Amino acid sequence: MEELLLAVARGLVDNKDAVKVTVDPAREDGTVVYHLGVAEEDMGRVIGKQGRIAKAIRVVMRAAAVRQGEKIAVEID
């Protein structure tokens, strides 16, 4: 899952070295939170107009997680 998020984010940004993903331990309800960090100048590319790209990233990640039987959340820091 982490590799998928990295691949998607690196495809969107200019500064690919600044992309990082951290993973929190599972919450009580079983949800795993992935934190996506990018360079300040690339933040607009990842969020998109009215948050559309960010929403699309979350949808793709949730769909991949369901296939593996997981519950996840993606936060963009």
Task: Describe the protein in words.
- The chain has one domain (2-76): K homology (KH) domain (GMP Synthetase, Chain A, domain 3, 2-Layer Sandwich), CATH 3.30.300.
- It has 77 residues and is α+β, with helices and mostly antiparallel strands.
- The mean pLDDT is 95.
- Helices cover 42% and strands 22% of the residues.
- The longest helix has 16 residues, at 52-67.
- The radius of gyration is 12 Å and the shape is globular.
- Strands 1-2-3 form a 3-stranded mixed beta sheet.
- A hairpin with a 7-residue loop joins strand 1 and strand 2.
Per-chain topology:
Blueprint: H1 2-12, E1 20-23, E2 31-37, H2 43-47, H3 52-67, E3 71-76
Provide keyphrases for this structure.
single chain, alpha+beta, 3-stranded mixed β-sheet, 3 helices, 3 strands, 22% strand, globular
In short:
The chain is an alpha+beta fold. The chain has three helices and three strands. It has a three-stranded mixed β-sheet.
Give the strand order of the largest sheet, numbering strands 1, 2, ... along the chain.
Answer: 1-2-3
Estimate what percentage of residues fall within beta strands: 15-25%
Tally of helical segments: 3
CATH superfamily: K homology (KH) domain
CATH level-two architecture: 2-Layer Sandwich
What overall form do the CA principal axes indicate? globular
Determine the mean pLDDT: 95
CATH domain fold name: GMP Synthetase, Chain A, domain 3
Q: Total strand count, please?
A: 3
Percentage of residues in helical conformation: 40-55%
